Write a sequence for this structure.
């Protein structure tokens, strides 16, 4: 067995933060304790003093299947630069091509990939499938959920998706709905915004009545939140992913300052980072070392408050892992979980890095990443040794 020992790090493990060590064996966390002796002479030792060891970010809307960009500018590498260790994209399978073998082929087509991954089914195409076909894809094929784009939400309201919604409810699967903001149409006229809110209200009413598990992406206004959680009411089946990047400045500032309040609402998650290149390139390589990660941008501080960092990890890792059915394999640091770990260094937030000095895979406050037990440092390229990502099927654990 190949061992890696992370020493003296500030470990976020569930609801606690303490200084200690993490022992990794192959791709799993073996032990987390105050002090751990190295098990073999050739154990890889990583000094994590003054650095935070966080569960890997789960990016549940990363279009790695259809990226035609240069490899280093593609969605998967941008997600990776922020600390993403689990990615999800959406399969679009035609009715006449749908089969378990087709799903297996599409999974295999994703390989080799650096991080573990899961797959949604496109809800529009899935609405044409029979219940048996959908069960084949989800229960035997392990597909995690269905994703419905904003432009098709009207079909939801018209009743065209009723059979699909019933099946999702019966099988306790997850439906993910994009909002207009997720579709990057942020300059909405007041009248159009009002009609969008009416549509959202109708959808929420339908899924609340049917008790369908739904995650709304791109929520970025108090009006949307009030529809989803009226009066702070927390439904057992309706969840919202807060898009802090697209929020009005006043709303975003409130989230930054009152993360504990938002964390107390168990129906809220924080959206993964936008998959846009930071803009500075050297020899076709993004110079990530000039830009901060999603973690620092969200916390808006150097050395974070313990509670805020614990809350943040829960909202970007643990909660989505539970919703997507990959918990406790993913989404937290504990013995037996996958060794997907962000090594975050807030001391580098204010550091000056000359252009061209460090063409890093990661944003400047990320010291390195553990992916499936492999350590990737900030200054190294990815080798074939790290291309060990696997398809992870949904399990039965829910929030």
């Amino acid at each position: 067995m190949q061992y890696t020992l992370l020493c003296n790090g500030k470990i976020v493990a569930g609801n606690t933060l303490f200084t200690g060590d993490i022992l990794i064996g192959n791709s799993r966390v073996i032990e987390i304790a105050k002090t751990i002796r190295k098990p073999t002479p050739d154990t890889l030792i990583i000094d994590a003093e003054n650095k935070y060891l966080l569960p890997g970010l789960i990016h549940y809307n990363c279009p790695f299947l259809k990226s035609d960009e240069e490899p280093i500018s593609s969605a998967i590498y941008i997600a990776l630069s922020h600390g993403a260790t689990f990615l999800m994209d959406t399969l679009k399978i035609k009715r006449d091509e749908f089969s378990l073998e087709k799903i297996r082929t599409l999974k295999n087509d994703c390989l080799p990939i650096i991080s573990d991954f899961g797959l949604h089914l496109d809800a529009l195409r899935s609405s044409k499938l029979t219940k048996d076909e959908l069960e084949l894809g989800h229960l035997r094929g392990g597909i995690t959920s269905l994703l419905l784009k904003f432009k098709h939400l009207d079909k939801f309201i018209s009743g065209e998706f009723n059979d699909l919604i019933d099946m999702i409810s019966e099988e306790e699967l997850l439906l993910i709905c994009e909002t207009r903001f997720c579709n990057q149409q942020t300059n909405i006229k007041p009248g159009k915004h009002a009609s969008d809110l009416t549509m959202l209200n109708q959808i929420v009413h339908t899924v609340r009545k049917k008790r369908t598990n739904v995650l709304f992406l791109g929520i970025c206004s108090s009006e949307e939140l009030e529809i989803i959680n009226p009066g702070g009411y927390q439904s057992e089946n309706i969840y919202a992913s807060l898009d802090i990047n697209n929020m009005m400045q006043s709303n975003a500032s409130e989230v930054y300052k009152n993360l504990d309040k938002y964390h107390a609402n168990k129906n809220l998650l924080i959206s993964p980072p936008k998959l846009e290149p930071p803009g500075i390139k050297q020899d076709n390589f993004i110079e990530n070392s000039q830009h901060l990660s999603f973690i620092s941008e969200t916390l808006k501080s150097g050395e974070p408050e313990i509670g805020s960092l614990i809350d943040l990890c829960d909202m970007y890792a643990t909660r989505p892992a539970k919703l997507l059915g990959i918990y406790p394999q993913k989404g937290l640091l504990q013995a037996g979980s996958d060794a997907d770990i962000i090594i975050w260094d807030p001391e580098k937030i204010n550091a000056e890095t000359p252009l061209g000095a460090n063409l890093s895979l990661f944003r400047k406050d990320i010291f390195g990443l553990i992916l499936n037990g492999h350590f990737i440092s900030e200054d190294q390229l990815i080798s074939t040794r790290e291309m060990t990502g696997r398809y992870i099927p949904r399990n039965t654990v829910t929030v």
